[in-house]
């Protein structure tokens, strides 16, 4: 009897010790002996990026399923495909948006040059830019205590590809106004970014934009998977001069007077909301990486950390065509029907309406060149200018057999697409006739080409397990 009582007491002790034992114990996999994941059980809500609209996943007939006057095989191989949900920019990237990109790259380069020149200047934390010492690397400023991790990296000689000690102090204001330069050393550094006097036209002080390059890297996943390996040797490093080619207005039209657009289109305030042009495929991809970086940096800066931002990228050819149809099966144009004008005789897109006729007509809504974004009706998904205005880069390579060997589920040729010189462009442009605006029509440009009629827009994946969307605030 005593033996049985002793066993019962022992069991009671074990149970009482186990009660609540998961609290504060590192490595405990669950609660009360069960595998219960910690954290909120709420479903993930996809945050809708500003200026983008959700495109619900679905199936559609890809290709010239309605009519194909030219009967060219590379443009008319219809087949049913399925695409997953994604966010897409509601309009093409504008001059104003792209200027934010190149200015951010310019500022980063300027800060790096100033930090190198400041050296061990001993600037104070929270300096106001009163001397070049204020632009020293954040890790070299007095009062900026290094974290244990930073100290460890420094003791190991830094980390390959990233040096924590060379973190820029972006709180110190920059100035490009010569009358506001804080000291002579600052002036020397900043002036090195401008064209030398002997190369200036009319002595105009202009930044040497060939020096303004965006550096980033991406992983060649397909090669890594093929080799059954992962590592830094599969990283592709890019250094892209990001300023658009403003000479395209002259180069594309040798026998036309387009000099005003060459001088004004990208920088003039009048063209702020016009689609950016003169951007190569590589520059468009660099913009996508920058857009991803600033969102990721913002998420990590919050006290209540957000999940890592999904990557922004160019749309695949299938995603672009699916989005352009606006949810209408076999839509000839983004608005559905086969006509280019509405019942009032107004054009539904910006294109070349007649032979030799580019004339702007406010009543009919036509423009001589590009039009400001969002001037024409949006399609069923809320997307503007999916036909006309400017053609748009896609991620996909252009090939006569693309439709033949690509998958019917999220058709894509992996990130090996970067090796192909020809890239698919979609949508037609302000210089094209109506036939080229059809949702199924394919065209191409070389990835290093910049054109006065090619722009782009970005997309972002939506996790298949995401709940309803949440709009971000302005």
TrEMBL record:
One short Pfam family name for this protein? Answer: FGE-sulfatase
Q: Which organism is it from?
A: Epilithonimonas ginsengisoli
What PROSITE patterns does the record tag this protein with? Answer: PROKAR_LIPOPROTEIN
Q: Which UniProt keywords apply?
A: Lipoprotein
What name does the UniProt record give this protein? Gliding motility lipoprotein GldK
Q: Which residues form a coiled coil?
A: none
In this chain the Sulfatase-modifying factor enzyme-like domain maps to 51-106, 215-459
Listed InterPro entries: CTDL_fold, Glid_motil-assoc_lipo_GldK, Sulfatase_Mod_Factor_Kinase, SUMF_dom, SUMF_sf
